[in-house]
Design goal:
Largest sheet: 9 strands, mixed
Low-confidence stretches: 1-23
Oligomer: single chain
Helix content: 10-25%
Mean pLDDT: 88
Number of strands: 30
Distance between the termini: 44 Å
Strand content: 35-45%
């Protein structure tokens, strides 16, 4: 939860609102709801539309941020591990080398759409963007046009137009999950069947990219003994103001002026990571990036807005000037960072933007076709001029040695009683490498289940006699569904066992120059004979001379026919494999997970009459 919202037309940005008082969370929540109601009422009294919009934007954002702060403060401290946000940078000799890898590792995939009138284009990046810190430097990517097979160039437009009769290039309709995906839309003609294969196909995508690489990155390692101390390295300094159980308060500063090339580009030079006593990185749950004094300033500006009768240019200039004056007085920046778990040590890193390298490049990327399944016999090359490592692989592959106890401890139990006629108990666990190798031949065995009432002390009491149709167990999905309409008494407990599945995995490490029959390496592509190494039983990971796992770009199965058996699979890597690790499922065991679950109480008034 790292909120950064524009609060006024002057461009104020906040992260989370820091409250000066600390009543109980319940009282704060009631107070916040009252404050929200009062604010909405005050908005109704503002007649000038410009003033109303400005007050609504600033005041509404402050309330939203206060709500987020309340959520952070009241969140239980439950340990959750994350990845090293700096891992990708540690593989490259300089920030600029990381930038070059990002740009040169980008390519575009041609993907079929479910519609005869659409072709999807998927830009594939060498780094994952699933976390805010996944790519560390300010960057921008702008698509401009697509060139078709008939040499025609179609300009990019930000939205698909229903009235445009021609071919269009616009963001994909699925851009919420893949924000850089694009769609080539062909014109729809009522009553006329269209064969998309006869349409001019996209062959290259044009655009431009810009990345700002800092002069350097420096990391400070801090513990509780550093509280109140300022640590300095050349022009960079960090002060640990406070280290709580699951949060840290930090002031930081770069005494050198910001490089002029940056201009108005917003920067976030701070990366804070925490480890617990096990040495593992904790995931972040949110941050506050303004001091109480800064928050008070924004609140004073809101109060001045609310005292106005109308918005004016003179008043807007006054607010802008006040903001500039206030910002000049802020010599240091502040952040309060929350983590999911108790903190043992901190790693506070600063990106030094006092000097930068700005890389701008015009892109003209060929559009490549790699279907997950193909009947083509020829192997397409996909050898990109970059090396990218898979930093998630070591943790993921721990699942190859998963024990029965570890599997059981990973189970979490959830309930749903909103519909008393289909109440549910669900047993789930985080997906691991073990799940990937389970295959499809399951033997769930027996899944006994019994429902019980409770005594006056809330303890398990007597079993309830039930007809078979009163409940249903789905052992493979790990769910129990029960219909309270068919229960003679209200159940309070459910007791039984549910099956879990544990693969036995054999790991081997092989020199890439001495591969067994059925495995072949063609440049950066591993070719696997699926008759020798069936896909459901085998997985393959590659390393180069550094000893790190190479990231897989994609995989293609070459099949005998669309419905026929697989012939061979091709796995493409970012880099040249010199060593392979093979993982074979040799056995599959059923593990019975015994449980006693206290049932949530359903609203009995919702039962069918």
């Amino acid at each position: 939860m790292d909120l950064r919202l524009p609060l006024t037309s002057a461009g104020i940005c906040l992260a989370l609102l820091m409250s000066a008082c600390s009543p109980s969370d319940e009282k704060r929540e009631v107070s916040l709801e009252e404050k929200t109601a009062q604010f909405e009422k005050s908005l109704d009294a503002i007649a000038d539309p410009k003033l109303k919009d400005a007050v609504a934007e600033l005041g509404g954002s402050l309330l939203l941020l206060e709500r987020a702060q309340l959520k952070l403060d009241s969140k239980p401290v439950v340990t959750e591990y994350g990845e090293d946000a700096l891992a990708i940078l540690k593989h490259y000799p300089s920030p600029q080398a990381l930038v070059d890898t990002y740009i040169n590792g980008l390519f575009v995939l041609h993907k079929d759409s479910s519609s005869d009138y659409l072709t999807d284009l998927q830009p594939v990046f060498p780094f994952n963007f699933s976390t805010p810190a996944a790519f560390l430097f300010p960057h921008g990517l702008e698509w401009q046009s697509v060139t078709l097979s008939n040499k025609r160039i179609i300009a990019f437009q930000p939205e698909w137009s229903e009235t445009d009769p021609g071919i269009q290039l616009s963001p994909s309709s699925s851009n919420l999950t893949n924000p850089d995906d694009l769609t080539v839309a062909y014109p729809f003609i009522e009553g006329l069947d269209v064969d998309i294969k006869k349409q001019p196909q996209p062959v290259s995508l044009q655009g431009k990219v810009e990345v700002i690489a800092p002069r350097r990155l420096y990391s400070f390692d801090l513990t509780k003994k550093d509280v109140g101390q300022t640590r300095t390295n050349d022009n960079l300094s960090v002060t640990l103001l406070k280290l709580g159980n699951n949060y840290a308060e930090i002031e930081f500063n770069n005494s050198a002026p910001q490089a002029p090339e940056i201009g108005e580009t917003p920067l976030n030079p701070l990366i804070v990571q925490a480890r617990d006593a096990t040495g593992q990185f904790l995931s972040r749950s949110g941050s506050i990036n303004e001091t109480a004094a800064q928050i008070a300033f924004y609140q004073r500006q809101l109060a001045k807005m609310q005292q106005q009768k109308a918005w004016s240019e003179e008043f807007e200039k006054q607010l802008d000037e006040e903001q500039r004056t206030f910002e000049k007085q802020q010599s240091h920046r502040y952040s309060k960072v929350y983590f999911n778990g108790p903190i043992d040590t901190l790693e506070v890193s600063l990106l030094d933007f006092s000097a930068v390298t700005v890389t701008r490049k015009d892109l003209n990327l060929p559009i490549r076709r790699f279907d997950r399944h193909t009947t083509q016999k020829n192997i397409q090359p996909l050898n990109l001029p970059v090396v990218v490592y898979d930093d998630q692989a070591p943790n993921w592959l721990k699942g190859a040695t998963l024990t029965e106890d570890q599997l059981k401890k990973a189970v979490s139990i959830s309930q749903s009683v909103e519909d008393p006629s289909a109440a549910r108990v669900e047993f789930t666990h985080l997906r691991s490498f073990n799940d990937e190798l389970l295959g499809t031949s399951f033997n769930p065995g027996e899944s006994p289940v019994s429902f019980f009432t409770e005594d006056s002390k809330g303890k398990r009491y007597e079993p309830i006699e039930l007809p078979p149709e009163a409940y249903q167990v789905d052992p493979l999905r790990g769910t129990i569904t029960y219909d309270l309409n068919l229960f003679p008494e209200t159940p309070a407990y459910v007791v039984g066992s549910i099956p879990l599945f544990l693969a036995t995995v054999d790991k081997q490490s092989i020199d890439a120059h001495q591969l067994p029959k059925g495995l072949d390496l063609k440049d950066n592509a591993l070719v696997v004979d699926l008759k020798v190494f069936p896909e459901q039983d085998w997985r393959f990971y590659a390393k180069d001379d550094s000893g790190h796992y190479l990231k897989e770009i994609l995989a293609v199965n070459h099949d005998a026919s669309p419905e026929g058996p697989g012939l061979f699979a091709v796995h493409y890597f970012y880099g040249q494999p010199t060593r392979l690790e093979t993982y074979q499922r040799t056995d599959l065991a059923t593990v019975q997970y015994g449980y006693e679950v206290k049932l949530d109480k359903a609203d009995m008034s919702k039962l069918a009459q």
